[in-house]
Amino acid sequence: MHRILMFYVFIFAFSIITSVIKKDKVTLKLTEGITLLQSVAMVYWMIDVRVYETTSNVSKVFMLIGLGFTAFTLFHAFI
């Protein structure tokens, strides 16, 4: 049990240390293309999870906000 826990602690610590040291190479710059891909992925996720079938008004509001951001991104990506 102790060996398994130490394995996960080592992986976590190694990931954090590597991310801090190689920060410029690990992080991507937020560009219009990245934003477009994230927006399309969010819409795909909402369709996959079937968020539109919910009866919760809060979920519907968040879905509309996400679709608004996606429409804004698509508009600026193709103009």
Walkthrough of the structure:
This protein is mainly alpha-helical. It has one domain (2-77). 80% of the residues lie in helices and 0% in strands. The chain contains 4 helices and no strands. It has helices spanning 2-21, 23-26, 32-49, 57-77. The longest helix has 21 residues, at 57-77. It starts with a helix and ends with a helix. The model has no long low-confidence stretch (mean pLDDT 82).
Outline the fold blueprint:
Layout: H1 2-21, H2 23-26, H3 32-49, H4 57-77
Helix pairs in contact: 3-4
Helix content: over 70%
Characterize the quaternary organization of these chains.
Answer: single chain
Spatial separation of the terminal alpha carbons: 57 Å
- As residue ranges, the low-confidence spans are none
Q: How many beta-strand elements?
A: 0
Quick recap of the structure?
The protein is mainly alpha-helical and 79 residues long. It is built from 4 helices and no strands.
Q: Main attributes?
A:
flat; 79 residues; mainly alpha; 0% strand; 4 helices; 80% helix
